[in-house]
Amino acid sequence: MKYQITHINNDILYEWTDVPEIKYKNWQKMLNPQVSEDFSVEGYPFFIQIEPTNFCNLSCSVCPAGDFGFKRSKRNMKLDEFKSIIDDMQNYLLFITLWDWGEPLLNYELPEMISYASERGIKTVTSTNCNCNNFHDLYYMEKLLTSGLNTLILAVDSMHQESYQIYRKKGDLNKVLNGIKNVVSLKKRIKSSTILMLRMVVMRQNENEIIPMRKLSRELGVDRFSVKTVNPLYSTEYSDADIIPKNPCYRRYEYKKGTYQRILIDFKCNIMNRQCTIHSNGDVFPCCWWYDDDYSVSNCFDEGGLTKVWNSNSYRNLRKKIFENKNAFHYCRTCSLNYKFSRTGWFYQTVDLTKSRLNQWKYLSRRYLELNLPPKMLGYLVSFKNKIKAVF
Hints:
Elements: E1 3-9, E2 12-19, H1 21-31, E3 47-50, H2 79-89, E4 95-98, H3 110-118, E5 123-128, H4 138-145, E6 151-155, H5 161-167, H6 173-190, E7 195-202, H7 210-220, E8 224-229, H8 240-243, E9 276-278, E10 284-285, H9 306-310, H10 313-325, H11 330-333, E11 347-352, H12 357-372, H13 375-391
Parallel strand pairs: 3-4, 3-9, 4-5, 5-6, 6-7, 7-8
Antiparallel strand pairs: 1-2, 8-11, 9-10
């Protein structure tokens, strides 16, 4: 018997229609994982993040791989190493995000990695800053777009080089836009099913460009346009007061009235029980926030795979320490989930440009109401809408 599953990642809905029973039952377990007294977890992650490389060609101002760097050694994950992760986890994995800290397309073996995962029913998404040479190599890009990759995020934040380079330091906007045109043309020619999503991170210097950027995305011929809120937590150059947009609807966090001081909440983390991140050298961490190797406790290449690491003594002890006192780890102390999110959260909007203008307008109108109407009035509207639906 085959099963159906849906999963939302980066505001996109993914569907599986022929999931084997072993994967389906594991997915059910991991929606609400049961953790034992010894901090072992019944089930294995169906979603993981894998870092193909921690090299980067840019120096973005709020990124550990760019602006202020990290201590761990730079390396590309090898194809055989990636295959070992998939071979070990293929009965459980449904989805892989192929990035962490670095530019994924700098790994020349990335298309082969994705093909290996896709052949085993695992969906994938990766991202690029569109500046690296491989993005402009049509031979490489054809391999990538025929690998089974589900989504490629194209990170472009502005239509003007002056504002673009404030965040994407060392980036060349003209090179990026020409590259996107070539990749869109290539996708059409080879009839690739990969979703091309242009992603804008909205900040103080570009918050007036959302509508022009959406129009540009349509003109370029990409499939989706997405506006993501900025996370200023890692920046050594900018504070929230410097970088977050003036419009509250474009912000990730809520702030104390009249200030740029985030509002702390008591966040109980269970991410460590549901998923994990694997660095390019095989080190396993509870989430993508752990960008360095100063708390490395387990390595899936050295210890026989993620299934061996997942409930190992060292990993269970790490879960216990995070559960008992997560603030002992500076990564946990600075985690964005410790702060009250705005109504907008991670994404201001994600528009499917392949649908009709009428559908796009309906989505944008609904999203505008969600973010601008007073919560009580919004609640009345939803209630009224549900009553009307019930009549018919």
